[in-house]
Write a structure and sequence with these properties.
The complex is a heterodimer of chains A (about 325) and B (about 600). Chain A has about 325 residues and is an all-alpha fold. Chain A is about 75% helix and about 0% strand. Chain A is built from 15 helices and no strands. Chain B is α+β, with helices and mostly antiparallel strands and about 600 residues long. In chain B, helix 10 packs antiparallel against helix 12 and helix 16 runs antiparallel to helix 17. The chains are: A mainly alpha (about 325), B alpha+beta (about 600). Chain B: Keywords: Signal, Transport.
Chain lengths: ~325, ~600
């Protein structure tokens, strides 16, 4: 298994290189460049524009820019400078990573914790009124974009006189040291993003779980288990769910890149301090090294997520063996 | 750097010059600080100290280094920390002393001597003096190696202004020739602390200097003379500023400003979230647009605890409609270069409807190159003409733009192709698409086919500057002095994009004078003459003539100038409208 994992990791290198080339080409294909904003400012002379172009290396041919960037990563772990912030890209990403990971992991856990039981429930009670209502809500929340849910929730809270809209904290707690009051304030703010971002995930996962549960539940081995007189709960959890959950593990691996790009619009609407809006800004400003690093990072997460999912699958399902 | 003299010996001397010493509490404080030293128009009433002012910015500041980035969020934050030599009175838009306490002009109008305010301290306790000013103006602001340098405003033609230290509290600015807007240029430049930044050697190592005061720099390094100083910064969430204990500003009673203890900027990216935070009481004031005005006004009238006000601003950029007079299409080039055609176009502009529906009534008729509330303005309103499609049609008929092939669209004279052109505009803007659609429908009724070409707002000007358009809706902000907009309105200027063929072959060269129309030539000369005059009355006469020429010759058609609108919470004092101007400042507002 170790050699398998190693081989997979080594295999990522050429894939990532290829992806980085594609990212670079796509970013270069956008019309305009970072320099454009300087053109419309009356204080900036043409001389300055040329100077900035030179300083940023934008006067060199595209392939030279790309090779310089890759060389920096490989030899020094240097992901380049942000044109906009005048700081190394890695430190900019690093300072935003904390809340991003926190929110992504939390939404993932919450949506799994809600969706799996609901999926099982709707599969077991296919024609019951409860399942019908849940399915209906599932369709609605699948069809509603997350930012719209966010806007609706904000409007609702405001109209009921609430004030905890937007952000993760009330203004006075943002730079306060951690305390019980700050934690409670966080919980007070957290439920809106959890619902807005998590809801779509819950609906999707619930439908997946329901479908694979329905597949499994009519299998021979489930009938056998029942026939040999096992308790209903034991049949459900040990035999049915354990098999039905396999496709969801693969799915979880694919959801890792959503850490970066998954919730850009909802994060902007809800004013969350995550990486998504940072990526969006860097694309708008044509801050090419920030955008490329984030896209590359997103690709890396996808590959790593896939690997982790495969390993987890092997652990969960003894039938799966590598080689 | 030489050692600075301690301020104490100077104090008694100064005190003797001023009568009102008695009000001055601390012994070392200067006499001139006992009365208000900020524009009196900022005070509706005298306020009281205490409280937190919470405002918003749309994105994290890119840096705390004013000259390293072009970023309004950086400027918004740092304008509370750094001071200029001279500011503008918000009521009159005239120059008002800040770090420079007074100034005198030499008789030939070529140089100005500025007396600096004595006793001002940086927020870390160091004295402010002429070395800081010279460092900022010479090493930083004029340093073309820095990305956001301001050398452009220090140039008259190709020659730069020079700055010289006379003594520790006197600085002299000299122009190569008489220059009327000399002091205006100084209202742009925030003064930096030499003792903190000289070590980065901006002249020798511009790149290194631009990395100073980055957003991860220790905040104690970032010092200023302004009312506030940086307290803490939480990435993507909040920038907190606290009262600068050494602030030199005083209110009319001699109380040290700012009134507020803290100033916080929440970082809120979406305009909707900003309004939501404002309604939830998290923000004391929110930037609003004309589109949001009616809704908030209704809530105010229904008893919400905030107030929504409107006024007329100076800078608010008026929208103009420009035609590419160097169009690659020969027919269009001929039409657009013809003043009579542009006059017919102006008759088809329904300003009343645009102001009413697009701006929700929150805009007014524009001036020609000068804001109507500016002291330079002359009333050219009669030349805006009123909307009259019938008359526009008669004019076009007279010029030969008739529908000769009977397809409902006019043709170019002599049986040419259909008259059809694009209007380039910012598609991601709340205003421009609305104006473009109204123009399209009115011109459609007139028999001219208009295609709307909406692109990302930030690419409109570069596209126009490249000459890659047929007609365009764009904006340029107005400035207090017409000299500062010379690049736009002087034929041959770098931003005079609708007549690119007039631009000099090389930057800084002579524009193509031979290709100018008589009116363009006259405007060109007016700007050249006014720039070299120190006499304000003569300058005013010239700029008045220019406004008439502008209004009559329509280089571009001005459409409307948006009003200033603001929303703020009831608890704020000294946030008000006077003479149609919205007046407030972060250091003079207080908690009622």
């Amino acid at each position: 298994m170790l050699t398998y994992a190693l081989r997979r990791i080594l295999g990522m290198v050429p894939t990532l290189l290829l992806i980085s080339v594609v990212c670079f080409v796509v970013i270069r294909l956008q019309p305009g460049s970072f320099i454009d904003q300087y053109l419309e400012d009356p204080r900036v002379t043409r001389e300055t524009v040329e100077l900035v172009t030179r300083q940023l290396g934008l006067d060199q041919p595209a392939y030279v820019q790309y090779l310089t960037w890759i060389k920096g990563i490989v030899t020094e772990g240097d992901f380049g400078y942000s044109f906009v912030n005048g700081r190394p890209v890695s430190s900019l990403i690093w300072e935003r990573l904390g809340w991003t990971v926190f929110l992504a992991v939390l939404t993932l856990l919450v949506s799994w914790a809600i969706a799996i039981p609901l999926g099982i429930y709707t599969a077991l009670n296919r024609y019951g009124p409860g399942a019908t209502i849940l399915n209906f809500f599932g369709y609605v929340s699948l069809a509603t974009p997350d930012f719209l849910v966010a806007l609706l929730l904000i409007a609702l809270v405001l109209n009921f006189g609430g004030t905890n809209v937007g952000g993760l904290f009330s203004p006075q707690f943002i730079d306060a040291p951690w305390s019980l009051a700050k934690f409670l304030d966080l919980l007070n703010h957290l439920w809106i993003p959890m619902i807005a971002i998590g809801l779509e995930g819950v609906a999707g996962l619930m439908r997946q779980m329901r479908a694979s549960m329905l597949d499994v539940i009519n299998q021979d081995y489930v009938r056998t288990a029942r026939a040999k007189g096992l308790a209903a709960n034991r049949v459900l959890w040990r035999h049915a769910v354990r098999n039905a959950v396999n496709p969801l593990i693969s799915l979880a691996g694919l959801s890792l890149p959503s850490l970066i790009s998954g919730t850009i619009i909802a994060s902007i609407v809800l004013n969350l301090p995550t990486i998504g809006p940072f990526l969006y800004d860097s694309l708008l400003n044509k801050d090419q090294y920030v955008a490329m690093t984030l896209l590359l990072f997103s690709a890396l997460l996808l590959l790593v997520g896939n690997l982790l999912a495969d390993l987890a699958l092997a652990w969960a399902d003894p039938r799966i063996r590598f080689e | 750097m030489t050692a600075r003299p301690a301020p104490s010996p100077a104090a008694p001397l100064l005190a003797a010059l001023t009568v009102s010493l008695a009000l001055c509490a601390p012994a070392h404080a200067q006499a001139n600080q006992s009365r208000a030293n900020v524009p009196p128009s900022l005070f509706q009433t005298v306020g009281k100290k205490g409280g937190t002012l919470t405002l918003s910015i749309v994105s994290s500041p890119q840096s705390f280094n004013y000259f390293a980035v072009l970023d309004n969020n950086t400027y918004t934050v740092m304008n509370n920390v750094l001071d200029r030599l001279i500011t503008l009175d918000p009521l009159t838009n005239r120059l008002y002393p800040a770090l420079a306490e007074s100034w005198t002009f030499s008789p030939d109008g070529r140089s100005a001597t500025l007396k600096l305010r004595r006793g001002v301290k940086w927020s870390d306790g160091q004295n402010f003096n002429a070395d800081d000013v010279i460092f900022t103006l010479v090493d930083v602001a004029s340093n073309t190696g820095l990305r956001a340098n301001q050398s452009a405003v220090f140039k008259i033609g190709k020659d730069p202004l020079t700055f010289r230290k006379v003594d520790a509290y006197t600085v002299r600015v000299t122009a190569p020739k008489p220059y009327g807007a000399m002091l205006q240029a100084l209202t742009f430049v925030p003064i930096l602390p030499q003792h903190k930044l000289a070590k980065y050697q901006p002249l020798r190592d511009p790149d290194g200097f631009m990395k100073a005061w980055a957003t991860n720099a220790p905040l104690s390094e970032i010092v200023g003379t302004g009312p506030f100083m940086l307290g803490s910064y939480t990435v993507d969430q909040k920038v907190s500023l606290v009262r600068n204990p050494n602030s030199w500003r005083r209110d009319p009673r001699g109380t040290q400003l700012p009134y507020m203890d803290r100033l916080e900027y929440l970082i809120i990216k979406s305009p909707d979230a900003q309004i939501a935070a404002f309604r939830a009481g998290q923000l004391d004031s929110a930037p609003i647009t004309g589109a949001q005005f009616p809704d908030l006004k209704r809530q105010e009238l229904a008893g919400a605890k905030f107030r929504v006000i409107r006024g007329i601003g100076l800078n608010n950029p008026p929208v103009h409609w420009a035609f590419n007079q160097d169009s690659r299409d020969a027919n269009l080039k001929k039409a657009f270069s013809d003043l009579r055609f542009r006059e017919a176009m102006q008759l088809a502009v329904n300003r009343e409807r645009i102001i009413d529906t697009v701006y929700n009534g929150l805009a007014s008729l524009p001036g020609h190159g000068v804001a109507p509330i500016s002291e330079w303005y002359t009333n050219t309103r009669s030349y805006l003409r009123s909307y009259n499609l019938g008359q526009a049609g008669v004019r076009l008929d007279g010029l030969g733009y008739r529908d000769t092939n009977r397809d409902g669209i006019r043709n170019f004279p002599g049986g040419g192709p259909n008259v059809e052109f694009n209007i380039l505009h910012a598609a991601d803007n709340t205003i421009m698409p609305g104006i473009a659609v109204i123009l399209q429908s009115d011109l459609g009724r007139l028999g001219i086919k208009v295609n709307l070409q909406g692109i990302t707002g930030s690419t409109v000007l570069p596209t126009a500057l490249a000459g890659n358009f047929e007609s365009v809706l764009s904006t340029f902000g107005d400035q207090p002095d017409p000299q500062l907009r010379k690049d736009i309105w002087q034929p041959g200027g770098a931003l005079h994009y609708w007549r690119r063929s007039l631009q000099p072959a090389q930057e800084g060269g002579t524009p193509n004078l031979a290709a100018m129309t008589p009116a363009e030539r006259r405007i060109h000369d007016i700007f050249a003459q006014a720039e070299a005059l120190g006499n304000q009355a003569q300058r005013k006469r010239l700029y008045t003539e220019w406004q008439w020429l502008f209004a009559r010759n329509l280089p571009v058609i001005l459409i409307a100038k948006p009003d200033s609108v603001a929303a703020f919470h009831d608890r704020l004092g000294n946030f008000y409208v006077r003479d149609n101007r919205v007046i407030s400042s972060n250091y003079s507002v207080f908690e009622k």
